[in-house]
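Supplementary notes for students who missed Thursday's class. We covered one full example, reproduced here. Read the sequence, then the structure, then the short commentary at the end.
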Amino acid sequence: MKKLNFCLIAIVAIATLSINGCKKEPKTPLENSTPVEKVFLPVKMSTDTDNEILKFKYLDNTGMIKEIEGTYTLNGNTENNRIVISYNATNQPVKLEGFSNGELEKRTVYTLNTAGDVIRGDHTWMYNGQMIDDGNTELSYNASRQLTSVKYITITGNTYEEKFEYNVAGNIAKYIFVNQTFNLEYDFNNGAFKGVKNFHLIYIDEGGLEFFLTQNNLIKLVNPADASNNESYTYEYNTDKYPVKINASYGSSTRPSEIITFEYSVK
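Structure (token representation):
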């Protein structure tokens, strides 16, 4: 999405007659310019652990995520996945569909409130060639329209909930999942997905808290009760302070460290 460079041009020409009938010279036009703010949208994200490559597409001139294409290696086989978000005529999200190797695998249909925020997602999955109900998700927001709660309700009626608390910069400072609490710390540079809209819908279906719901870059995630859940991140940045390379370390011995790289388009 391009932020227009507005120029306010004020031209003042005051002509008055003096006592001797002379005319004043017109004043020099004044021009004030607002600098163009570049918006970076990730178009490619790669990891070194499973040769995963994600490619991102957006609605024209909106910054709204509309598609993710992913390839990765699983047990020596290459898998191809695709996520598509559909929008209505007023650019409001109406559904998300997930495909695995070309076959429809899941679908989420959204319900919106009057402000246009998604407040419910009804999920279905493929099972033995048929789409079956798989419960729903309820979303809550604060007065700043930040996501504060995601409640998952399974088809059997079981419920579990995620909660989010934010700092003044708009980053998640505390994340609560069931009975676990995580504290998060950030740097002051631009988050990779800072300019992307509706990425929380991807998070609900796919996860990825460390990238999708932050304005800046997560450097530390700490679970005071279990260090094996801790995570830390270091970054390399481009000249505009967006991350181009991330070194991710995880507390769990079963989850190897990984290197994540980003490529962007600039609007």
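Commentary. The longest strand covers residues 130-141. Residues 1-25 have pLDDT under 50 and may be disordered. If anything here is unclear, bring it to office hours.
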